[in-house]
Design goal:
heterodimer; A: about 140 residues; alpha+beta; disordered N terminus; B: about 140 residues; mainly beta; eight-stranded antiparallel β-sheet; two-stranded antiparallel ribbon; 10 strands
Chain lengths: ~140, ~140
Amino acid sequence: MALRDSIRHKHFPVSGSAGLPEQMAKLEAFRELAPGWDSYSAPPPNETALRSAWSILRLVHEQEDVLPVHAAPSAEGGVLLVFSGAGSKYADIECYNDGEILAILSEPACDPTIWPLTPEKAPLQAALERISAFLDD
Amino acid sequence: MTDSPAPGLPDPEFEASERLFRRLHPDHFVSGVVTDAFLPFPSFSVNREKYSHPEDVLREHPHYGIAAFAVGDIPEKLDAEPGQVFRFGVEHVPLAGNYAHSEAHSFLEGVKAEPPRIVRKRFRELLRRRTVVLKKPSTL
């Protein structure tokens, strides 16, 4: 389906293993979202959240082993980057419209691990390595 | 599904086993997994099972999926900082044309309040884990 058609329907089907240009185009397409894009009352991602997500996606694609990642607008207001894991492991980084960024590692029967990030390269790099180790473990 | 007790009036009684339904955006279902991006907080809307069918949430949104969890799946409380405990619950808030409409809220000392972002993230993740997808979203 053409991206233009997807925008009209407010759905952005880009796979987790897509290249950086496709994922950047997907982030750009989030600018088309209107308030209530999720059929409830979610605010669209703003420039702050998009910039944070853009920085993280670039860093993901600079890694030697690129983590499959799926970008989605978040009903919380921002952009969610979901990292695919084996089995029931789950990891994401959520970039909020107010500039806050949280990362999470989660697996059943364990309390989720959540920590804040800043949009600088060093903490983001450390977070990606931590996520990669968690998903590979 | 049962009839409402009185037209327009809320029914405050929820069984822990009663299911709550919410539309699932196609981007929030990734490789067979629901993401927490479908849940905003400190409050969000659902339809309650007692007065609706799951498919009712899809009116005008047929390509969405249906996410479901039970009232008892909602975390009862989460600590923010020492001595600060946020509690969570669901309220029946009927709307014109949607008697089943309900809202989940967070409370601090009995008053609706917005928890810190990290508490909200934990809440959303715990509820995500317990969420069942009754209908997958359609790809257009």
